[in-house]
Records
---
Amino acid sequence: MIKKLPSSPKIGMVSLGCPKALVDSERILTKLRSEGYDLSSQYDDADVVLVNTCGFIDSAKEESLDAIGEAIAENGRVIVTGCLGHESDRIRERFPDILAITGPQQYEEVVSAVHDAAPIEASPYLDLVPEQGLKLTPRHYSYLKISEGCNHRCSFCIIPSLRGDLVSRRADAILREAEKLVAAGTKELLVIGQDSSAYGVDLRHQEYRWKDRMVRADLTDLARGLGELGAWVRLHYVYPYPHVDQLIPLMADGLILPYLDIPFQHASPSVLKQMKRPANEVKILDRIAKWREMVPDIALRSSFVVGFPGETEQDFQYLLDWMDEAQLDRVGAFRFEAVAGAAANAFEGAVPEEVKEERYQRLMEKAAHISAAKLQAKIGRDIPTIIDRTDGEGGASGRSYADAPEIDGEVHLRDAENLQIGDIVTVRVEDADEHDLFGVAIS
Ligand code: SF4
């Protein structure tokens, strides 16, 4: 039987403005062409028309609005981008039927709007990569990057100088990517960004259309949308800004995993001040207590730096006492290292290596002690677990809702002949050690 290959959607482009805008148009078309879109020079032949506008002076704005009007009249399916995109209210007021409006250099946003307006039909005969993209993680879990860069300037970190300030992705683009991953077999979405709780700040929490509703570029809205896709949703690198409290009801409702990875890095106020840590406030222990009232099983993971310049024994003891109170489920720690280019390298009060090592050991001992007690308390309980591997001899290993891949503990199962990688099962916990659980699947 002869297979008919799907035909590609056609894109029309009206490019106005300066040479920079022209280069933007070229980049957008190059990207769309590389994805398989065709180009059209006729309004009536295009599936969607892009108008790249100029907003330099009033006459240029009028010319852009006229071009939008012409494209609407001739074709009707129009996406606006470029400098006039900053005045989206003005454009919408005049042309309420516009499909999407983006600003200058928002390539991903324009391309994403085209995907929505004129999707390319997937074809196993034509596509070199699967629809969800190529993955280095196993099929059943995927990292989902929601932003790049960071607006903070922690004194030990050089990420902002390497990657720049926070740039968030559009909420609809993230949700679309997540939906594709879930359709391709992902059972667990691991949400990452340098500072996930700041997601959307740079976009002023703009709203994007997703299916039949609007979704704000904001971590709570995004987490809700991701939770509705039916996979586990695990949040990483969440700094405890006040709005993080809004995520807890989503956990109580089972939309996202009751798991928060919060890189506290220290607890002593003077060390945190020197570190210039964001969202560092004294009331965090009260907030943790409130989160636990709402979601008693919430798992909290964090990482800490010991031996930061100027850290005294008193500061370190403060951290240990804080850990006794916070009772974090999972803890990672690092001995402070001077990273080339970090401001902290010039700070006085370098901590000798042997003192760093001794503090590191004490911290890890404390963390292991807390972890062991918490895991012991899980013996006899039934815990949702995702299967990561099977050993071919009746055993399997996976992770509970409280364990992220690579960094947290594992759940080891006996009598697991029927389990497959990616299954999510309920495990009755029979035993525990400092980091791992042992049990059997009961459903
Ligand atoms: S440690 Fe995190 S929050 Fe601080 S500057 Fe680096 S990326 Fe930003």
---
Amino acid sequence: MRRVSLEEAFALAEQHFPAGPEALCETLGMSVRYAACVGTEGWCVHNCASGNTRITINSRSPRVRQRFTLAHEVAHVLRILNAPNPATSPTHVPWPSAGPFVNDLAEERVVDAIAADLLIPRGILRVRLPHLPATEREIAAVAKAAGISPWVVCQAMTAHASALGLSGAEVVFIRQDRVDFRRSSTGEPLVADAKGEHQRALVTSDAALSNTASIAYKHETVSLLFVQRTVAPRSAPSADDLRKQLFGEDRSLQGSFAGAIGAWTNRHRSSASFANVDALITGFIAHYTQHWSKKPHLLAVLRSDACRQWLLLVLRAKLSPPRATDKG
Ligand SMILES: [Zn+2]
């Protein structure tokens, strides 16, 4: 059997899109059989000595599922071919009955990610999804063209978030109202409370949380929440929006901040840092984090992202040179 590197495999898949996994089977001389199976999506038997590979796919499963299984089994073989010591790699690779992306085994996750890249290569995603965040409809169109489920598109988009131009993406799998697993492109959760966020997303579907768009998919007892974060907010909130978000009707809370900002700008009016808004904000947050260390309600506001955004707008307005006033 010819040794094909992962890079070669991805290039071949892109060249043969949407039939990447099928083209790889041909290139690698793997035989694929479709048969009615019970309790499994299929399996793969790979003989390391001879290189012979036989893949069996459950013909009873929906077409998109069959293609994912095929890509998954091809990915297993690619992993074996690219293993440092292929002879010790497993030769019999049964497909777990749990389904795509829901197996806890680290190797299965790696294989699923490769499978997604074979089915919807990165280059194709870039061309077909030029506008971000992608809408549910755009993702559905790509999934249809690729002959896969939208969930696989979300998974691939998360894996390649930065290459696509997203500042972050996350998939959260929820099984019976419990987070089964989540994968974020940044390694950090993008949504703090996946459950609450998920429920809100279910209600509003394509909810725009400033620069974060979330889409929720539901299938029987499993749902997937897909979150995309763009670099620039869809529509930047105004200082007034942020003020309302931060303080609501709490005049006293807002008063504490207004007083602190006034004192801080007066104190730094003559210093060099005055012209540097970012330095002014960083200094303000550091100073008041200490100053308000015994006032948790002020600290909670001070440490929020919205507060930094609000400070930026407020200080910019304060620092901008006075406009030429009417003369005469
Ligand atoms: Zn597997």
